[in-house]
Structure formats: C-alpha cells, structure tokens
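FW: tagging you since you asked about this chain on Friday. Here's the raw sequence from the shared folder, copied in full. Didn't touch anything.
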Amino acid sequence: MVSSPEETRVLPAGFLIEREVEPVGRWFLAQWDRINCTRTISVNVMSESSDDEEEEVVDEFEDDLEYLRSLDPREIKEQDHYRVLGITQLRINATDGQIKRAHRQKVLRHHPDKRKAAGEEIKEDDDYFPCITKAFEILSNPVKRRAFDSVDPVFDDDIPEITKNKEKDFYRIFGPALLKNARWSNKTPVPELGDDSASREYVDSFYGFWFDFDSWREYSYLDEEDKEKASDKWERTEMERINKAQRLDKKKDEVKRMKKLVDNAFNSDPRIVKFRKADFEEKAAKKKAKADAAQAKKDEEERLKKEEEEKEQREKEEKEATEKEKKAAEKIKREAAKKAIKDERKKIKSFRQGARLFFNQRG
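HL: got it, structure written out here
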C-alpha cells in the first residue's frame, strides 16, 4: 500500500489514502512469463471453452497417456513434442491448424483442473501438463519448431550402403532415403529420383542438385549451454561461443552424412552404370575409328610407297634393259666391225698372196 502524493498535499497532515498497485517493468514481466510459462497458453485455451465447461473432446489425434505420464517436466529437451500433442504420424507435415487443434484436444483432456475435477490426485512438481504446454510453445513457433525438426528424434540418419547387383534394389532403397532427406532442402522443388527411363540430362541435373545440396538443418536445439542462465554478459557470450562451436561440428558431420548419401546413390545408380558403359563404348568406338583411320592412312601410304618403289623398280629394270640392249647392240656392232676388218684383212692377205703368186709366175 502506498499514498498518493497529490492527495497528501491537499489532505491534513498524517492523513493517508491507501491504493492497491501491481508490480510492473521488464524484469517483472520476464520473471512472470518464466514462472507462468507452463500455464499461460493452456489458460487461454481453457478460457475459450469457459462458456461450455462440458465441451466434448473430439478424438482427432492420438492420445498416448502412458507416454505423457512417463515425461519429466524438468527434461523438456528429451521429449518428442509431436508425440506429446498426438501428431506423431504428421510430424513435420503437420499444419499450424492441426497443431492448434491437437493442443486444444490435449488441454481439454489433460488440464490439471479437468483432471482434479475428475478426482485425479496431481503432484504439481511432477505433473506432465507443462510438457504439453511446452510442446505447443515450440511447435507453434516457426523458429523453435525448425530447430526441433532438425533433430527430430524419430528421423533416421542412417545412410544406405552401395548396391551393385540388383537394379530394383537401388530404386527401392535410395528412393525413400533421398525423399526423407529432401525435407532439409532450402531449394524447392526437390527433383525426384525418377526411374530407369530417365534421360541423361535429367540424371545429370538430379545429381547436380544433390551434390550442391543446401540444407536448412541446424542444431541449436541441442545447445548444452543455456545462455539465459548466464549471470552476466561475459558468461552469456562465452556460452554462445561454445554453443556455436558445437553446432558447427554437428553441421560438418551432417554435411559429411549428406555427401555420403549422394555418393552412395551415385555409385549405385544403374543409370550411371549404363551411361558410363555407353561412354566407354562410345570412347572405344571413337578410339577404334581413329585407329582404323590411322591404319587406313598407313596402309594407303604403304600402298603408295610400294607403288612408287615398284614404279622405280620397273623404271630401273627398263633402264637396265635398255642399257643392256644398247650394250648388246654396241657389242654386236663392234663384233661386226671386227669381223668386217678381219674379213678385209683376209681379203687383203688373200689378194697379196694371189698377187705374189702372179708376179712369181711372170717373173
């Protein structure tokens, strides 16, 4: 209770008027929100149905009471928020409207006031209802929901191993694996795996997308250091530094995981095998054609060379034959000349002998 300064000035001394006031300010509001974070949203939902306290609960979503009772409100990060709200099957595909309706269903059924009215004994420090409130708080906030979706506890991070023999196994195994990881893509639409009839251009474009995969997945939800608990700015900065380093390490592991997924798919894809075989055959055909062309050119060069050599040989032989004939003719001519001279000599000798004999007889 405090007195009004204005009224103190006009009233007799010692006469005070008391008024009721409420604490205000950022610090108080922050503390108030923290204290009442487990009740604020649920109270609003309950107030919407206050006109009809006996409103019927529609079982649109599953209600796993055993799981809810197993939750520890002090270990919020360990809970599956989708399972808490009963939208386990929808999960990342759940719309904002479905999340709101699922939360409303849980509030109408599990709010402490409802359960107390039904005769249930509730321990406030160990009640699971704050888990419902926290699940809605996270899933109704786009940033917090994306952080939780990034580490979805039911998401399977396993990577299929390389398949080599059965073509059908490739589409059966890697189709779903790529499809489930497509949720992380910043770029949309994500190309589908296709089938064996896909063209080379489509397959090249498909793997071009996946080898350059741009993921929105991040790991702030797993931060080990809660900077909100820091006592000062320095401690908060140090916590944030530690958290960023841990997120970066997890992100690097995720990049390696995605690279392995795409590499294994690429090395298992029967279409890639087919394209490689076609490339090999085309390359071999080009190589053979080139070799055949080179051989043909070589054969042609050898043929021309052989023809040239044969021509030269013929010309040589013809020249030699001509020379031989010429020499033979000259020889014949020389022999004929020798014979003619010899014959002339014989005639002269014979004439001399005849003349000598004639003169001898006359003389």
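FW: Residues 1-54 have pLDDT under 50 and may be disordered.
HL: agreed, and The chain is about 65% helix and 0% strand.
FW: great, closing this out.
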